[in-house]
């Protein structure tokens, strides 16, 4: 397997900082966070004020510079972490042009968010129709659009993702399996989920999370909340995940996005890679 870092998880580092660090620690690749940040955001965090972000505006023109930064540090770019949505075809096409210019074969294209404020079928049918157009664009530009299994979306589980992409060409559309996201919503047995995805399984994101009591009511019932955890300490069982990946013959990319903050960023980068390689070696054995 090869290991990359999704730069959403390195908010304190600029692109010029993070690329040489990943090379130093032994990573094989980098997955750039590509989105327009709000001007002058208050503070710095993973999703706001993230210094490791490549702006979406002007990304096609900036592509040679970003490509050179990765290549100069011996890093491959397995996928782009864009935030474009299927419902915005113009932005999707721009992102695909950027992927083509960068020489990146895959890019994330988001499905619709979902809560229970409106009927499921209405949102589902409209968004799937939009993603069929995404699939057509992917074929045109010679890239693969990736749907990420994500809580709060139409595809919180492997089963939902497979149902969503059914009938679309897997050369044009794939799925990112994310066991950490499925701690929040959508957990399924790893082998069941990975085999359901079948030929649509294209990329792996690794993070972790845990459930904590948020509030105790007067009747002693509990309101729970889910929050980020270190990769090696959360509810998602990394050893079971890697054993399953080996069992089904997956030998592709693992992209790490650790949103925990118990350890300093550089320690997270270094220790996560060492842990995951150890887990992979155990799975081989």
Features:
285 residues; alpha/beta; TIM Barrel; 9 helices; globular
In short:
Helices cover 39% and strands 19% of the residues. It is built from 9 helices and 12 strands.
Summarize the structure in words.
The chain has 285 residues and is an alpha/beta fold. The protein has one domain: TIM Barrel (Alpha-Beta Barrel). It is built from nine helices and twelve strands. It has helices at 15-25, 59-72, 89-102, 120-141, 158-165, 181-184, 190-197, 238-248, 265-284, and strands at 2-6, 29-31, 33-34, 53-54, 81-82, 106-108, 144-148, 173-178, 201-206, 208-216, 222-229, 253-256. The strands form three sheets. The protein has a seven-stranded parallel sheet with strand order 2-1-12-9-8-7-6. Strands 4-3-5 form a three-stranded parallel sheet, with no helix packed on it. A two-stranded antiparallel sheet has the order 10-11. Helix 4 links the parallel strand 6 and strand 7. Helix 3 (89-102) packs parallel to helix 4 (120-141) and helix 7 (190-197) packs parallel to helix 8 (238-248). It starts with a strand and ends with a helix.
Q: In CATH terms, what is the fold-level topology?
A: TIM Barrel
- Name of the CATH class: Alpha Beta
What is the end-to-end distance?
15 Å
Total beta-strand segments: 12
**How many helices does DSSP assign?**
9
SS class = alpha/beta
Low-confidence stretches: none
- Please indicate the count of domains: 1
Reading the helices and strands in chain order gives EHEEEHEHEHEHEHHEEEHEH
Major sheet characteristics: 7 strands, parallel
Largest beta sheet: what is the strand line-up?
2-1-12-9-8-7-6
Helical content class: 25-40%
Share in β-strands: 15-25%
The average pLDDT score comes to: 97
Known CATH architecture: Alpha-Beta Barrel
What is the CATH superfamily label?
Divalent-metal-dependent TIM barrel enzymes
Shape: globular
Estimated radius of gyration: 19 Å
């Amino acid at each position: 397997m090869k290991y990359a870092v999704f730069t959403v998880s390195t908010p304190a580092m600029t692109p010029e900082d993070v690329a040489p660090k990943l090379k130093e620690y032994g990573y094989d690749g980098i997955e750039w966070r590509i989105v327009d940040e709000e001007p002058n955001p208050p503070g710095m965090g993973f999703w706001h004020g993230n210094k490791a972000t490549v702006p979406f505006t002007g990304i096609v023109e900036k592509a040679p510079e970003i490509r050179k930064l990765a290549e100069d540090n011996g890093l491959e770019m397995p996928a782009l972490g864009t935030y474009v949505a299927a419902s915005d075809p113009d932005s999707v096409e721009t992102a695909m042009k950027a992927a083509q210019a960068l020489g990146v074969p895959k890019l994330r294209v988001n499905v619709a968010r979902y809560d229970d404020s409106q009927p499921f079928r209405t949102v589902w049918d409209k968004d799937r129709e939009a993603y069929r157009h995404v699939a057509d664009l992917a074929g045109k530009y010679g890239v693969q659009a990736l749907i990420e299994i994500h809580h709060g979306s139409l595809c919180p589980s492997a089963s939902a993702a497979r149902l969503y992409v059914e009938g679309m060409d897997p050369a044009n559309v794939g799925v990112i399996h994310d066991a950490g996201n499925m701690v929040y919503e959508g957990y399924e047995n790893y082998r069941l989920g990975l085999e359901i995805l079948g030929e649509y399984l294209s990329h792996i994101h690794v993070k972790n999370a845990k459930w904590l009591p948020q509030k105790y009511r007067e009747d002693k019932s509990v309101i729970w909340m889910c929050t980020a955890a270190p990769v090696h300490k959360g509810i998602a069982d990394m050893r079971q995940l890697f054993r399953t990946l080996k069992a089904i013959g997956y030998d592709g990319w693992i992209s790490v996005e650790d949103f925990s903050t118990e350890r300093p960023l550089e320690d997270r980068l270094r220790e996560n890679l060492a842990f995951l390689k150890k887990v992979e070696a155990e799975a081989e054995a």
